């Protein structure tokens, strides 16, 4: 046979040539065809020469038919040969195999070989390659000369052992046994991912399998530099990290460098002897010295250990081991806490903090933190109890103060707008009364309008008192003297069915208050006490000096430590229900029947005390009565002597001069202009600050007095006065406003006494007197 080449796609190697089966199959067909045609023609001519053409044709046809059958058989074989894959296709198939593979002919010569075969065996024939593989032991011939498409197929399989699979099987079998003796086992792959943990380690870590281990825990677990590992229950595990090269111990050597890790974990034993006793004593001391309540409970919530601070949450009973923790809580919080404890113990997870109420008297609130705890006798839960009673009280007081401040701002704004309206109503009533005297039939109607306007003015004044925006005239007073003078009025006010007791303490200091407003506070509290004692009772007013070390002062965290005068107003009436005690200082809140109260009594008290710099608190028990405690800061200056004033003589309120009146409310400006004009003054009017400033520039030398509203759009009153005095420094000024003078003076700065202030609503007489005083 001729020499050819081995086909491997990239490189040619020698091989033995073979005849083309297609060419070999064509030769017999051609020979048979020529012979059959010649024989058939000879038969026809031979018998035709003898005159028997019919017999000659029959024999010739038979010869041709027999030749055709032979040709048909040869063609079938040829077609079968042509349907086999050609050598190029077989070469591609062999080349795609990953293991060494080759095709050989019937004589054992190599025809086609893939790259893996050539790398392993070179140019060796299939049988020689099989012998070499048997000698090396690295490969085994799994297909030896099987006929395939007219060729013999040879294939070789790698019989090197799978080291990773061996390690998996070894670690898995060892891990099961280690769980029986309480030793944990884990394996990580080359990337550091933990791919296996045994049952014991899963129990310690509180997970079901390796996929649930947190990333940080997994990193610490396989870190060879760390000898300890903390569990979710607070326990400590000791560990040793091995390279996979050490597993299994009897594994044959390999050139492959192992990159995975195997970890063995165990829990250290309990110390014994004197050292253990010392550690236990220290831990017990730390446990008891903790400022928060600590308790150790099992999965059912039963107490096994607790510290001294825990006893604060059970003042009505002595805690004992075996008690259910949930019995110390209010009924509404028991089921939720029981569920948290069970979840923490069984799943080794830290529960979310929970706000609870304790079953104590007086009621206490707290926060509960639950975390898992590993103990020798099994898993438990460590419960932290933090008392939040005082914090919640401060939060409620802060929210209440914010609410009162917001309502006060609203009330102050409403009062300002009402004061503008009432100024116009009262002022025009005064103008009408000038023309309609007591004998006029319209006099009584006008007086009714004015009296009701004055009543409305009193309500507005109470709103301003609540919002701490009313005008105050404070002076230094002795509270005991004020109460003594007020006692007769109080007895008439509360009636004969209520007994009044006044008890004064020693060394009660002086305070700086507005006497009229303080008397209003006492009268409002006395009236409320009288209404709470419908069948009669006792009203007690007690005064006392308290200092910074007094428990009464320390009970209220919102009150700065200092020296105060305490005024207690107590009754033995029906008390205040707990659900409304936080609402009693709100304006227009009242529990009285319709028409029996405005709902502004206690709100006025609250505003006056706050504006004075004091504090007011209420303690009430439904059915036992209420006690209002008023704390006023002690004033160290000598009380002012009140001199009796002689009745003022009638004053002439007419005058002369030019007055600039700046007021954005048309009704107020119209009334004031007519009132001053009737008194003999020349009045220039302006509806805004800008318009008033323009008039000042034109008439700067002729204006004797500037009367200006305080709050106006764009340019307000103080800005107008400042710019006007740049043009004329000695310009006299009167401010009018629906807000309190104290609030206004704080806005323009302390020490600004070079102006007069007239609060709204004002009457015609009050306006004329103020103008007369300013010009005199």
UniProtKB/TrEMBL annotation:
CDD domains reported in the protein's UniProt record: HisKA
Uppermost EC category: transferase
GO molecular function: kinase activity
Residues annotated as domain Response regulatory: 658-775
Enzyme Commission no: 2.7.13.3
Positions bearing 4-aspartylphosphate: 709
Stored Pfam families: HATPase_c, HisKA, PAS_4, Response_reg
Catalytic reaction annotation: ATP + protein L-histidine = ADP + protein N-phospho-L-histidine
Swiss-Prot/TrEMBL keywords: Kinase, Membrane, Phosphoprotein, Transferase, Transmembrane, Transmembrane helix
Taxonomy, superkingdom: Bacteria
Domain Histidine kinase: 413-636
Membrane-spanning parts: 29-49, 56-75
PANTHER family cross-referenced by the UniProt entry: SENSOR HISTIDINE KINASE, TWO-COMPONENT SENSOR PPRA
Name by which UniProt lists this protein: histidine kinase
Organism: Iodidimonas muriae
Lineage start: Bacteria, Pseudomonadati, Pseudomonadota, Alphaproteobacteria, Iodidimonadales
